[in-house]
Design brief:
alpha+beta, 226 residues, 6 helices
Length: 226
């Protein structure tokens, strides 16, 4: 409807159920207004911070079939389509740090995207909850790849160390023996799994041990279940 002869006011319905929310033409076209105000309250409840209204730097988002690609100055990250309003609505620039995690800055503190999407605030030592990236790709923040767990459980799903020479976790070439040694760390204790002449056999022993001791937190577990 026309607020006056020089200005047009648009009425929009919010997803929360509130109707006839007033927006001017500039706000409507730019997409700056994401809700009636309820969304800002949700962000505040999760992050314990007030959303910031003005900033200069913005991400670009590329829409796919069932997810979005977020573009930063360093790399790209993925998140579910139904999380788009959350990612945009927090009104921050998302960036990727040197460890490969997607973050935004909240009043001097780094806030991780994967924690935000799983409904967690900043890390709290008392509950010790973290979010694990199941496939090891920290840029894939689709909820099918995220899992809330205790911090002590996360190393079970760690990636291959850069100094590994066999190409497989827990498998080391023993030069004096001329064989492959297999080991596994369970609850901070090293478990010896023997030595093997064949790399294939050593890798298989390690794979089965991971499934046995780590269960769903083993990378091999998903393939085994499938």
């Amino acid at each position: 409807y026309s607020h006056n002869k020089k200005r047009t006011i648009w009425l929009r319905d919010c997803e929360c159920g509130n109707k006839d929310i007033k927006c001017n033409t500039t706000t409507l076209k730019s997409g700056l207004r994401k809700s009636c105000g309820c969304y800002e309250e949700e962000i505040k409840n999760i992050t314990k911070e007030e959303p910031r209204k003005n900033r200069k730097k913005y991400n670009t988002f590329i829409e796919k079939n069932d997810y979005y690609i977020g573009v930063t100055s360093k790399d790209e990250f993925l998140f579910d389509k139904d999380d788009y309003e959350k990612v945009v609505g927090i009104d921050r620039y998302w960036f990727i740090n040197n460890n490969g995690y997607v973050l935004c800055s909240l009043y001097g503190n780094d806030f991780q995207l994967h924690r935000y999407l799983m409904g967690l605030g900043f890390y709290n030592k008392e509950n010790d909850l973290i979010v694990d990236h199941i496939n090891g790709n920290t840029l894939d923040n689709r909820k099918s790849n995220l899992r809330v767990c205790k911090k002590k459980e996360n190393p079970k799903n760690c990636t291959l160390y850069s100094n590994n020479t066999s190409g497989h976790k827990g498998v080391v070439w023993m030069k004096k023996l001329g064989k492959w040694q297999v080991g596994l760390q369970v609850n901070k204790e090293n478990l010896y799994l023997g030595v093997y002449s064949s790399l294939e056999e050593a890798v298989e022993v390690r794979r089965k041990a991971e499934i046995k001791y780590f269960g769903e937190f083993s990378r091999e577990y998903r393939d085994e279940v499938i």
